[in-house]
Amino acid sequence: MLFLCACIPLAGAIDTKPQWRVIHEPMFSLIYEANIHSHAQRVAVQLNYYLNQHLNEMPLTRAMKPIPIVLYTRAHTSNGNVGLMPYRSLWFNKPAPFAQLEWFDALAVHEGRHIVQYNQMSDNLVAKAMSFALGELGSGAFSALFLPAWFFEGDAVVSETLMTEGGRGRTASFDLWYRTDLQERAPYSYERAMLGTGFDRTPRHSPYVLGRYLTAYLRSEYGSDLFDRIINRLATPSGFNLDSALKKETGLTLSKHYQHMVSSLQSYWQHQQSTLDVSRVDLIKGQQGEHWQSFYPINVVDQQVFAVKVDAKLGSSIVVIEEGRDRLIQPLTNRAARSYYGGSKTMSVVAHNHQWCWIEEKPHAKKPFRDTADLYCWSQDEGEQQLSVGERFTYVGSNHHQFLVNRFNEDRSSEFVLLDKKGGLLKVVPLPNYSIAYDIRPVQDGWVYVLSGGESDGVYHIDRELENTTLLKPNSHETLRSPILTEHWLLYSSDVSGIDQVYARSRASDKTYQVATRPYGSYFLHWDKVNQRVVMADYTAQGQQVVAVEFKDLPQAPTHWKPVDAQPRSAPIFMEALEQHLPITEVEITQVTFESEPYSPVRHLWNPHSWKLLFDGDQLSASIFSDDVMDKVNVQLTSGYDDSAEDWFGSINAQYRSDAGPFYRTRIEKMINENDQVESSVSILAQQPIEKYFGVYQSTWQPYIGVERQAFNQGDSLTRLIYGTRYQRIKERAFQAIETPSGFEQSIDGQFYLAEQTINWLSSSKLTMEGFNEKQSVDFALSLQHLNTPQSMLSQPRIFSPIDQLGYSAQMEANYRINLGPVGRSFTPLMYWRNTEVNFSLLSQQVGDSNELAFGLGVAPNVNVLRNTNLKLKPSLSLYFQPNSGAVSLEYQIQLGGF
């Protein structure tokens, strides 16, 4: 509490520009900036509707705990979450072009489902007891221990698909990795499908996709209230974990249900495939090697195809394909390539004047919940250039002279921005609110693009002056991509059939034809006018290959094109039964006005949410944790009594984050050591994290300065100035590269003792590089310190003597780590073995004239516990030999994490 009082003078450091308001409703408090008041009114309507819909399926025995929901419109990213510690939901602003819904409407149904899921735990007696004993720490532990990630995310995806006419479950590209792999290869076991190994046939395992099918299957077979019944059984003799609770309800284990689900999916997809008259294509670039990789065309010049390559082991890059081989042009960041390997499958990289350009999202260097998305270009001559600063762009199109960029603003308005070839502003034209324009392409007399996120969805043409807009293809509950406008046709891809296929719409008659039919879908269409063909990405189980189909821009449709009549999209698998019980109803945006009032972040800094009580035989202590909804102040209060010393102890730890960027931390502590000596300390510290991005590298610089005073019961005391900095530069990690990415870290820490006028300092350097292949790495660490007082700043060595000598001392460690690859084996439902790592190490310690040396061999299996993605166990066993003394020692360590 002392720290909170100390924070009051700092309130002026809070950015006063955002004027926050709040709408209080029985089930939520909606916190938002005043400039989006009308949008917040719409969100409140949607939330009330969808929360009640969810509660009809998963009723509660008591009123739902109101949740604070913060709309962060300065966070330019497509995301949202619901969390505990503290209980809150954060929504970010940028729409995603895959749900065919207004973005906040999509979050209302998806995050609303998570809110009800968390509240369901209050109906479970054990979860309620854990919550009573530990607060939200108990609720979080219960959910992590007993409910897998696929349930939370899959159930929410099913809900967004079931309750709306959009949602990811209706988007064909959403499940491509899982669907193609399941049709071409023997399925993984339930455990491996859920938990993976880090070295699997597809780049990553998504709880959204697996959960979308598994929850939909179970709900369709056993009722929408199945998980409501199961959650009530968890941690009880009638169903301790999810597996046993499900077996009590249905008579079958999770593994059996998974097998039945897989069988149903395979039959459904095989039947779908059997009805296809697959088109012949010309292969431009096929799969090479055993691991997953894909190619996404950017541009076609003569016989060269430029593409984005996403490699599970090597990362993303821009390549040129010639004669079936690809050649590296430039590495590409995951941020720039995200929409290619994600579910949206929208074009991010465009060709422009012998350079490649894209929009790259980056978090603010110093301020959380703020992002920018700027225009970048790379060329052989000039390297990478940033053509805008501090923008909120989404997608870009380019011709030889200009860029046309979509910008989505903080007030949720959308607009086209026309830029010259150097990024200079030429013109701004408004688009419908909430909307996002993507797959923007130049044509002879203007631009063609797809608009998504509102009632005006479809493919559009806008003239060169950005004055006249024409609707070319309205959206019919489908995902539209890759529009190509020729003299006679509009080419595009659509998933109206359940698979993304290539269609052509006559500009003269509006008749629509299916141009090509492929087994798994076609994406990123490009018209090669010279060679009279359409080049596209063609999906397979190992990624996307590049193929071409013939296309001549003639006024009449060729005989092999199939006429297509407009038809509604059919319900996805497992949804038919669910829709009978919960038919889709459109939310009415009424004229009801919700009352709002000013919201002050400063007045809501104190927000206790968790607590705990500990006793170790001598000391009894109690702790309470507080985090405000907006992550400005984090506090931990601890107080206790030591029976042997017959004295009390306690501490206050607090951190305040100013909107200007710096973090202020303070600690007030009185502790009693094992010899019943009392030590009191007070410290205050300021730290400023700064993040920068350089291509595929990210750097973090964290300078800090503070003061610490310690007092001892013998009457001694000391005051020291603590200061230092830490610099870290890390390379982006590919999906299946070794767990620790390549990078460098350097830190310098100092302690200046005011009374003694002496300095202790420590320099630590760490370097990680790839070994002979992507499963191996070399780690090197060197620490050098100089002491003028006998208080070592180095960590206590595992096998060497303690460091307490004045003057210089050093530690060095070198490791060669080898991941042996996937294991993917279960040993009872308690333990799942993902993969195993071995390492060869060399350790050295120099203190004065004394040198100690050791060689080590270690093994560390990576394990998941209780079939839970969140609960990770990494036991390690190391054998060390010290040649100086001939001593042999065995060391073990257990790391438990994931919460």
What topology emerges from the helices and strands here?
Blueprint: H1 2-7, E1 20-25, E2 28-33, H2 37-57, E3 67-72, E4 80-83, E5 88-92, H3 103-120, H4 125-134, H5 136-146, H6 149-162, H7 176-184, H8 190-195, H9 207-222, H10 226-233, H11 242-250, H12 254-274, E6 282-285, E7 293-301, E8 304-311, E9 315-322, E10 325-332, H13 334-341, E11 350-352, E12 355-363, E13 371-379, E14 383-386, E15 393-398, E16 402-408, E17 414-420, E18 425-431, E19 436-443, E20 446-452, E21 458-463, E22 469-474, E23 480-485, E24 489-494, E25 501-506, E26 512-516, E27 522-528, E28 533-540, E29 543-550, E30 562-564, H14 575-581, E31 597-598, E32 608-615, E33 619-627, E34 633-642, E35 647-657, E36 663-672, E37 678-687, E38 690-694, E39 697-701, E40 704-712, E41 717-731, E42 743-753, E43 758-770, E44 776-787, E45 807-827, E46 831-847, E47 850-865, E48 872-882, E49 887-897
Parallel strand pairs: 2-3, 3-5
Antiparallel strand pairs: 1-2, 1-31, 4-5, 6-29, 7-8, 8-9, 9-10, 11-12, 12-13, 13-14, 15-16, 16-17, 17-18, 19-20, 20-21, 21-22, 23-24, 24-25, 25-26, 26-30, 27-28, 28-29, 32-33, 33-34, 34-35, 35-36, 36-37, 37-40, 38-39, 39-41, 40-41, 41-42, 42-43, 43-44, 44-45, 45-46, 46-47, 47-48, 48-49
Helix pairs in contact: 2-3, 3-6, 4-5, 6-9, 9-14, 10-11
Report the CATH topology name of the largest domain: Neutral Protease, domain 2
Task: Identify the overall geometry.
Answer: globular
Instruction: Give the domain tally.
Output: 3
Give the number of DSSP strands.
49
Q: How much β-strand is present in the residues?
A: 35-45%
Mean pLDDT: 90
Distance, first to last CA: 27 Å
